[in-house]
Amino acid sequence: MQTYTYSSIPAQCFLGESPYWSVERQSFFWVDIENGKLFEHQLDSGKTTIKSFPHRLTLVLGGEGGELILALDRKIASFDLSTEKLAWLTEVESDLPLNRFNDGKCDAKGRLWIGTLSTKFTKGSGSLYRVGKDLKPEKQLDQLTISNGMAWTADNQTFYFIDTPTRQIKAYHFELETGEIEFNRVAVEISEELGFPDGMCIDQEGMLWVAHYGGSGVYRWNPTTGELIEKIELPVPHVTSCAFGGSNMDTLLITTAQENLSKDQLKEYPLSGDVFLVKTETRGEEANRFVY
């Protein structure tokens, strides 16, 4: 397997997540969920800025007008970077105060797919929602525990999804026009010693790059054969998500976490919570934006 080199950004997130590449700003965004922080890192200048919110901030992605779309606790909002104005768009599970949003992505039609979990990680307490132009969340999957990574194939016929504790990446038939999904098969089974699958993205060859929580790296899986192709080894245990970006879409930004590490482990793995940049030999696709 290839050996990768990385550079790190000293973010020191408690729970770094949701990397997103903004083409117009030529910068990476990510969040520190529990601390409500939004990071922006300009790739050319190397400058990082941080904005803080009085909520758990679980997701950042792009809106159709250049604004950001944020998931805060159980609500979705648009955020104007120039005015710093936050506008609430929709909400889920107001009857479940222990729940919060987690990972999310937009499909090729601009619909937002976003999951929930219980902050107590209660089995079966999470769901996956689809949010379209009418801003009404529609439940697509339930009985989830940690709704997590998602990706679509280039032909928009397959949707990949991770419910982390299952240690599986599931493939669903995807109907682009309607946004309907139907379970097809388990594409990848992840063995215990490799940790838990967390966030993921897909490259132009259709391979899945998956952050392994407790697995010290990002693993590249072939979802057709279920085989592990390669691994980006990182000097931290808890790797949480990854996204392609950069001018050639060949730079992988990887988020990590300090949570669930003891003081001794944090001394042993001092870069835990930092963000890593890795140049790959493949490319990703520009992320879809939320159309509403």
UniProtKB/TrEMBL annotation:
Residues binding a divalent metal cation, per UniProt: 17, 148, 198
GO terms, molecular function: calcium ion binding; gluconolactonase activity
Swiss-Prot/TrEMBL GO biological process terms: L-ascorbic acid biosynthetic process
Protein keywords: Metal-binding, Zinc
Cofactor: Zn(2+)
Pfam family, one: SGL
Domain SMP-30/Gluconolactonase/LRE-like region: 15-258
Transmembrane segments: none
Cofactor binding description: Binds 1 divalent metal cation per subunit.
Active site per UniProt: 198
Protein residues bound to substrate: 100, 102
InterPro entries: 6-blade_b-propeller_TolB-like (IPR011042), SGL (IPR013658), SMP-30 (IPR005511)
Similarity section: Belongs to the SMP-30/CGR1 family.
Listed PANTHER family: REGUCALCIN
Protein name according to UniProt: Sugar lactone lactonase YvrE
Native species: Algoriphagus antarcticus
Lineage, uppermost ranks: Bacteria, Pseudomonadati, Bacteroidota, Cytophagia, Cytophagales
